[in-house]
What we know:
- Strand 10, helix 14 and strand 11 form a beta-alpha-beta unit.
- The strands form three sheets. The chain has a six-stranded parallel sheet, with helices on both faces. A six-stranded parallel sheet has the order 11-10-9-12-13-14. A two-stranded parallel sheet has the order 7-8.
- It has three domains: 14-213, NAD(P)-binding Rossmann-like Domain (Rossmann fold); 223-309, NAD(P)-binding Rossmann-like Domain (Rossmann fold, 3-Layer(aba) Sandwich), CATH 3.40.50.720; 311-446, Rossmann fold (3-Layer(aba) Sandwich).
- By secondary structure, the chain is an alpha/beta fold.
- Helix content is 42%, strand content 13%.
- It starts with 13 loop residues before the first strand and ends with a strand.
- It has helices at residues 22-33, 45-52, 63-72, 109-121, 138-153, 173-178, 190-200, 215-246, 250-258, 279-292, 298-310, 313-321, 349-359, 372-379, 389-393, 413-419, 435-441, and strands at residues 14-18, 37-41, 76-79, 91-94, 126-130, 159-163, 183-186, 210-213, 330-334, 363-367, 384-385, 398-401, 425-428, 444-446.
- It is built from 17 helices and 14 strands.
- Helix 8 (215-246) packs across helix 11 and helix 10 (279-292) packs antiparallel against helix 11.
Amino acid sequence: MNNKKPIHSYYIMNIAIVGTGYVGLVTGTCFAEMGIDVTCIDIDKEKIENLRKGIIPIYEPNLDSMVVRNVSAGRLHFSTRLEEVLDNVEVVFSAVGTPPDEDGSADLKYVLQVAKTIGENINKYLVVVTKSTVPVGTAQKIKATILCELKKRGVDVPFDVASNPEFLKEGNAIADFMRPDRVVVGVESEHAKKVLTRLYKPMLLNNFRVIFMDIPSAEMTKYAANSMLATRISFMNDIANLCERVGADVNMVRKGIGSDSRIGSKFLYPGIGYGGSCFPKDVKALIHTGDENGYSMRVLKAVEEVNETQKGLLFNKFKQHFGGHIEGKTVALWGLSFKPETDDMREAPSLVLIDLLLKAGCNVAVYDPVAMTECKRRLGAAVRYATDIYDATTGADAIMHVTEWKSYRMPDWKRIASVMKSEPLLLDGRNVFDPDELETAGIKYIAIGC
């Protein structure tokens, strides 16, 4: 492999990120912020033109200003043609989508298309890194695809494949990238390890938290991590539902078990289920991987079942409260995104609740600080779009608190009670409000697991 560039400490690295979705755009922008020359690639010409103008396709706190700053500094570039930058970069990150197929498996067509383009056009050594969440064995498919294209060309160009799964939380992605708990990297050569060590070293000078391992283990780590977090959520929701039946308070139970250092308190909050682009997809994909290999992921199948049931919990409580007579009732939904600090509504509990309410003949008013545009794109005129939580609540029989935005934390309960219909009800899907305050204001309060 005599075409490899020596690893020195003084030259600026050039990398490409393929895919300008959530993972790709955050990754590319953060690398540029570290002083690396980054070109983000996407086949969507309109998206690329907008990014060049500083128009960001996703909502993530502070990302827009960081993109503008690094474009102005000449470190962050956008293009629609990967083949035009391959001679000038040392690393290509593949961060394209891996949507689930009907059977729950990850669709790798975009990942393999990137590999095909690389094989058709590389002329010098390159490290090809998978950033997308992909099943175990994908790196070998990528390698085979590149080798196939090189063979067609009749050339022998050295390259390495690697896996570098992302662990970004929507709403906190920049901090997660710049100050990570760990960076997991799967490699199969020492040279690839040196290249990726240098790439990540500037952000980890004081505590080098890169964990190198073999590629299959890196690919599995991402799925295992998300599946563990999903499991904790579903476990706690199962406990909350049982608490209601035996007279226990899940909030007390959570504190009791969370104080055990072996368990910890994170992801032990009861609620109305997980959503988003990662947990649902990754749990399904890991279940599918198990089935493909003759092993049933029994725990994860239960996790998924609990989660799907949990998304309709507030509707069931609402229906029970009114003795099943809910046709014509008006419900205000506080929150649409699957979690705060994002406009992402993929697999969001709000969509399940809205669907159940509309099918039951209810009227629905919604408000979310950032996800209103996304909701309009998805649902059109099926619901009323309020200007704030008070407008959403006006004339409502009940409130469903769906997403725990901080701006909802301390509302004027007396004002809310005054604009709602008689005997107002609040169903708290996140257990964040004080029951005494609601009772003082004359609002019936129903939470989860207590």
